[in-house]
Amino acid sequence: MDKSIYTILSILFFAVSCNTKKENQKLENTIKSNTDLSIVFTASELKSKSLEELRLIRNEIYARKGYVFKSEVLQNHFENKEWYVPKEKEKITLSENEKHNVDLIKQIEAEKKKEFTLTKPSNEDSSKYSDTIVVNYKDNKKILDILTLFPETNMGSWDWSQKERIDLVNEIKKNNFFIDIDPIFLNIKYVEPNTIGLSVIDGFWTLSVYDIDLNTKLVITNNIVGDGNSFTAYKLKNQKLKILNLDTIFGDYFNSLLKNNSEGCASLLNENEITFDYDFSHPEFIKISSWYLHKIETDCFKGNTIILKLNKSKSLFETKEVLWEENK
């Protein structure tokens, strides 16, 4: 080969190689250090990115704060970064510029998502997309429509605007699937006709609905965080929610566990209240069960599990049964 041609090819190869390295480095460094609060992204530099790239860029903002991801793919991705230091018990807060960057990325993701949904994947094809979650709207219409009615104050320690919830349900209504582009609260664990459960940044949130008659329903939400359960109950009539007193709906169901009403037993029950899990999945019953109490505490307790049954005529739950169940 002519020496001059060899030299030219070598130069071209070097140039292409450098350019490839620059592109890879550019993607790797798309997020600058969040310690520099002056960094603000622009739409022009983000629109050329793919949905997958945008997802990584947006989540890196949280990763640099030490957020621990529930997505195994994301967690594995960031654990390979030298700068990533997971902080499981710390609340994630963003600066104004970081919030701007997240909102802008989500806006561009939404635009790209709309383009994507014009060529809607079938249920079979949707499994190819890691962020695509199939939900049948017709089968779950009741619970999904109620999800859009809640005031934002019901969302506990996390923000999920009513508009975002309406947009999500409309997307499911149109396509029978949605594309999850948010690591904080759109991690839907299950959707059933009378209950829905969502994994959120600091815990778990459930919404359950119980039919009283054709026009009236009881609606219960449970915000589950490190220090226990936080309930809110509503009466739903004519698509309007009215908040209810929890004592009126449930009564003093914990006292039904006590075999011995002594001060010591009452104190022991109070200390173990945080160990009770609540199952709202049945359309007529609520199961409340402690994973900690054992039958050996027979001097104080009749059981570690309470079954509440819906009394439709009174619009409340009554204790149906107290029993011992094997701890799992």
UniProtKB/TrEMBL annotation:
SMART domains: YARHG. Signal peptide: none annotated. InterPro entries: YARHG_dom, YARHG_sf. It comes from the Bacteria. Pfam families: YARHG. PROSITE patterns: PROKAR_LIPOPROTEIN. Residues 28-110 form the YARHG domain. This is YARHG domain-containing protein.
